Amino acid sequence: MVEQGKEQETKDFHPAPVWLDASYLEPLLRDLKKDPGLRITGLEIKPATAKGDNYASVMTRVKVLFLRSSSKTPEIEFYIVKTTYENDPFASGIFSKYQVSTTEMLMYEKVLPQLSALIGETRQPEKLFATTLHVDYEHEAIIFEDLAVSKHVLADRLIGFDLEHTRLGLRKLAKMHAAAAVLNERKPGILTKFDHGLLNRHTKGFAHIFENLCDVAADFAATCPELGDYYARKLREVRKRVMEYSTRVYDPQPEEFNTLMHGDYWVNNVMMRYGERKEPLDMILIDFQFCSWSSPAVDLHYFFNTSVQSTIQFEQQEELIQYYHTVLVETLEDLKFVGYTPTLRQLVLQLEKGRFFAVSVSLVCQAILINDQTKDADFNALMKDDERGRNFRKGMYANKRLQENLKHMLPRFDRSGLLDVTD
Amino acid sequence: MSVSDLIGALDAIPKLTTVPSSSASAQESVFLDAPEWLTEAYLQDALRKYYNDRRLKITWVKVNPALGKGENYGGVLTRVKAQFTRSDGSAQLGHYIVKSTFEGNDFAQKTMEPYDIFNREMEIYEQVLPKLKALLREIGDTEQIFAETMAVDIENSSLIFEDLNARGFTMPDRLKGLDMKITRLVLRKLAKMHATSAVMNERENHALEGYDRGFFNRYTDNYAPAFVGMLQAATRRVAQWPGYEKYAAKMEALVPIYMELGKRIFDISPGHINVLAHGDLWTNNVLVNYDKETGEPLDAIIIDFQYTVWGSPALDLFYFLNTSLEFDLHKSHQEELIAYYFGVFSETLKKLQYQTAVPSLHQFHQQMLEKKFYAAHTSISVLPIQRNVETDNADFNALMETNQRALNFKDACYRNPISERVLRELLPDFEAEGLLDADQ
Asked: In this protein, which residues make up the domain named CHK kinase-like (chain A) (predicted)?
């Protein structure tokens, strides 16, 4: 029995997958609960992604009522079904080059459960991911626990993380990174094969986004009194090499510490749980479409340049990297990792080597992720070189928070030689 | 430690101030406390060689110590003023400084011996600096970086320089840090010195790479009691501050590995660009010429090449930037200053057609980061010596020994409010970057 949500809600939403019904879900639940006599007694399916929401994923909320074979009391569980949806052939064409669906399915099916098991072996185990119920390769669907039910919410991406949130985010990230290094050590190759991150050596599908936004940044610099033509000229040169220089940061170097990157580690890809006084209690990581085997520089520069408040980004990165390193090393030690564990100093040097990525993230990803103009906010507007696209991208750079950030960061990047094109 | 460091630590030596022009009536030669070989005949001979004028004749000479009486530990500075006539009949007044050894303190002699500072300085002044100057002239650059050498006397272990004091150069106040203007001036000179040295080394088949006895080297640990002793004094001080226990603990744990960490900075790192480093570049080894009216710094000269060593530019950059600057520059502007230095450095290399690959600014920045322990070492263990104001028992022995007097001297260095501020504000930064970790 399926209850439909109210009509006026569903017509603005993407419809739920047609194959999602009780006969589909019952065998999965029987398997999960190890009870062949289990029966589904009720099912509520509610679409959860509004039309116009982002890119190629569709989310559906499922409320399942069931009876175990030994019980008379019905139980309730909540799941999210995440599916790919071809709402825009242009967008899905690009995204499929990045293998986002395959990556995420593999992560939820094979990788995350193993990482969770490993973290369970450490001195301070904690939950990092939503529990996977099922991954369906045929339907390209992932079913996992609905975190909203356990009161997880998104934080405000326009404000960014304060110190407490940032430390929580780094603790979780460090544990994921450590567990992944150990997993690949125990099962060589299982994770090194992930190589379709946002920048990769297989496709430059997002090149237009990166290059266009460098140009817009240059236009902004030219009219900004604190920056001026000097920076405009430099940014136009950087534009020519932004893809190559950024991709180099992703290339794993044999003598360095590498592990599985989340690949898109920012505010909206973690779910927060808050206490009575709005204090952050816990955090769950979501959205594993861009995982790749690389240097921690990838996740760390991405996180610090999209997701944290300015004081933290400008003044507290060093001590926070130290904190991340402490958790990383502790976790590696707990799991008896025998591979190369970088000292703090070695990590610092490795991050400096990859610091061009902080530049591209600041100019490009940050602009997209903290964008506050929601009209015309879609993939085409990011990519296309038409008037609508140009206006949208120009509008992104009217964002005050972005402007203040770049006025401060560009001179710092320049002092380190990060805006110089040398090859 | 260089002679000038110790001179500075004492602060009993009057600063070299501009000498008022004397009346022309003094016609007799005067020799006050000069080394015995320093006679009028000797000086006339040296002047004749320098000016290549065999008929040059001294009219009179005034010689007196440039330092106060009794303050010598291995080096003597003598001021010479000489009136002489040239073969063309013209009269000239010359001002010179004579730097010579002195058989004084046996302990100091023995301790300094493996660092070979006197021979090295003479060699540098005689054979190296003139070539660096020639390289600059090659590209039409007329800047003066070093004092003009008048004579090098190996036999008497002495050097004669032009007396820069007479040209209006003075030593900046070592208790105050240098401001942005002077700092940039010095960095410009340093960059040109480094660049020309790299080119010279390339053209002369690695001739400069034999200079491998800097403060930390693979031959001797004789200065360990000074460096490690200062670290320990710093630790004692820091441990007294509430909230700083973890820094004191880390500093304590560094003791067994401290000398090794220092040596790694001086080791040649593969792939890095290397230069002839001054080795002891701080306020007291810089002379500045100020505009008489505005007080603006016009020019700077680098002196004292006793600890010259082949290695990373970091050896000079971190040493200078972590001992000699105003606090705000020291804490927050080093990266920008290094970028300024690098602009002059790379431009000079390019003009001289340096053949080896020059790093990009970011690569250079990364190379400096690999050597950044030296910034921590200098801020913690060297700056406090140089800013010390309790000078009663401040001498070479106090620095190098481990007795009570030596401990007292070192503790005094850390009572200085400037040293305290540097430690309080910079230790957390160093610690956060892993520079206080025994396992780096």
From this structure: 142-334
End-to-end CA gap in chain A: 63
Q: Where a domain ends, among B109, B127, B154?
A: B109
Tokens of B267: 């080791």
The residue among A230, A318, A323, A359 with the most chain B CBs within 10 A of its CB, best to mutate, is: A318
The minimal CB distance from A322 to the residues B362, B370, B432 is found for B432
- Name the residue among B335, B365, B432 with its Cβ closest to that of A319: B432
Partner-chain contact A416 B440, CB within 8 Å: no
Measure in Å the smallest separation between the Cα of A233 and chain B Cα atoms.
18
CB contact under 8 A, A416 and B360: no
Predicted structure pTM score: 0.91
Q: Sort out which chain B residues have CB atoms less than 8 A from A355's CB and list them.
A: 362
Q: Domain end: B80, B109, B138, which one?
A: B109
The answer to whether A416 contacts B335, with C-beta atoms less than 8 Å apart, is: yes
Cα–Cα nearest to B147, from B289, B6, B52:
B289
- CB atoms A345 and B366 under 8 Å: no
CATH of residue B229: 3.90.1200
Q: Which residues in chain B touch residue A412, judged by CB atoms under 8 angstroms apart?
A: 335
Residue with tokens 């479409």: A289
Collect all residues of chain A within an 8 Å Cβ-Cβ radius of residue B437: 343-345
One domain for residues B235 and B377: yes
Could you give the ipTM of this predicted complex?
A: 0.92
- Closest A-chain CA to B365: A416
Domains along chain A with CATH numbers:
2-83 (3.10.450), 92-129+151-415 (3.90.1200)
Nearest partner of B277 among B162, B383, B124, judged by Cα: B124
Distance from the Cα of A388 to chain B's closest Cα (Å) equals: 37
List of chain B residues whose C-beta atoms are within 8 Å of the C-beta of residue A422: 360
How many domains does chain B fold into?
2
Interchain contact A421–B (C-beta under 8 A): no
d(CA A44, CA A63): 5
Domain that holds residue B396: 168-432
Q: Is B365 within 8 Å of A420 when comparing Cβ atoms?
A: no
Digit-by-digit pLDDT tens for chain A (423 residues) are 333 333 334 456 777 888 999 999 999 999 989 999 999 999 999 988 766 555 568 889 999 999 999 899 999 999 999 998 666 788 888 888 999 999 999 999 999 999 999 999 999 999 999 999 999 999 999 999 999 999 999 999 899 999 999 999 999 999 999 999 999 999 999 999 999 999 999 999 999 999 999 999 999 999 999 999 999 999 999 999 999 999 999 999 999 999 999 999 999 999 999 999 999 999 999 999 999 999 999 999 999 999 999 999 999 999 999 999 999 999 999 999 999 999 999 999 999 999 999 999 999 999 999 998 877 778 888 888 899 999 999 999 999 999 999 999 999 999 999 999 999
